[in-house]
Write a structure and sequence with these properties.
The protein is mainly alpha-helical and about 300 residues long. It folds into two domains: about 170 residues, Rossmann fold (3-Layer(aba) Sandwich), CATH 3.40.50; about 70 residues, no CATH class. The chain has twelve helices and six strands. A three-stranded parallel β-sheet has the order 1-2-3, with helices on one face. A three-stranded antiparallel β-sheet has the order 4-5-6, covered by helices on one side. A hairpin with a 5-residue loop joins strand 4 and strand 5.
Length: about 300
């Protein structure tokens, strides 16, 4: 049973709105202890509010990257929201220096201090953006599976417009991150330029359509992974004897495991490794500057120079 929340207008339909949102969420049962990663933006604030509404004992964790002067005040805003809804609050600080790959480094630092089971405020719109990002990386079926529909992402079937509406109806002040409109970040260009263009071409809202395909890609990737799992990814003869699709899948999974890469390995890297397997080259560089080489019919992975 959802907890009772009141919007600022006293609208009787508000509880029905909450119940409609919760019917598409995957929160644990009431009284479960949960941790919510809360930046202060509408998606993560909605995550916290809905966790409380379903009856969970929630803790909001805010991570300050120290990249913007206002970040300290954002932590205070999250603390006040947590207090308003009866949630506990924890503040964490990480150091992320400006420079290349800022978004990825900030995400890695943030996840490094969050509990492993912390819930994240990803939505349908984030899922669609992630699929397009992975498509541009050439990441294959596992990349198109994007984010898993699991316990860490209980609001992954909600729209960004709905999380904004929830915060507005509750009269909550939320963080507006200026970096979300910065075209230097590829995700922002997908969000603000590419998706609106696709919507216009398709004459429809394509984000739900894209997101609905992610579980299908996930099921296919899981099946291929299971079939490919019997192959020794370091044995060139075994890879040559395998079905080419399964060899590609096994190499992709092996590279991601060996390199601990955050994103699915791109198809071009997999193809270069296959060239090594088939003796076209003795070694090759793959994603992230890692190197794969062949010795006596065996593959090995070496870290980037300087690591």
């Amino acid at each position: 049973m959802a907890g009772q929340l009141s919007d600022t207008s006293g609208d009787d339909s508000f509880q029905a709105f909450i119940d409609h949102l919760l019917s598409r969420c995957s929160f644990p049962p009431a009284q479960a202890d949960v941790v919510c990663a809360v930046s202060g933006g509408p998606d993560s604030v909605a995550l916290l509010v809905l966790a409380v509404a379903v009856g969970c004992r929630a803790t909001a964790v805010h991570v300050d990257h120290g990249l913007r002067p206002e970040s300290a005040s954002e932590a205070e805003l999250v603390r006040r929201i947590a207090e308003q809804f009866g949630a506990d609050f924890v503040s964490e600080t990480v150091n992320v220096d400006p420079g290349p790959n800022l978004e990825a480094r900030a995400r890695k630092a943030r996840y490094g201090v969050l509990p492993a089971d912390a819930m994240l405020g990803h939505t349908v719109d984030d899922q669609a953006e992630t699929m397009l990002l992975n498509l541009l990386r050439g990441a294959g079926p596992s990349g198109m599976a994007a984010m898993a529909y699991d316990a860490r992402r209980p609001i992954l079937q909600l729209r960004r417009s709905e999380t904004h509406e929830l915060c507005t109806r509750l009269g909550l002040d939320v963080v507006t991150d200026p970096t979300n409109t910065d075209p230097a970040f590829r995700r922002n260009r997908i969000r603000n330029e590419l998706l609106p263009l696709i919507d216009d071409i398709a004459d429809r809202d394509v984000a739900p359509l894209l997101a609905s395909q992610a579980p299908l890609f996930g099921e296919q990737a899981a099946l291929l992974g299971a079939l490919a799992g019997v192959i020794d990814p370091t044995d060139c003869a075994a890879l040559r004897d395998a079905h080419p699709v399964l060899a590609q899948v096994r190499i992709r999974d092996w590279l991601r495991t060996e390199t601990s890469m955050e994103h699915p390995v791109d198809h071009a890297s997999v193809q270069r490794v296959l060239d090594v397997v088939h003796g076209i080259h003795k070694g090759t560089e793959v994603v992230g500057g890692w190197r794969v080489s062949r010795t006596s019919g065996r593959l090995r992975v070496s870290p980037p120079l300087g690591d």
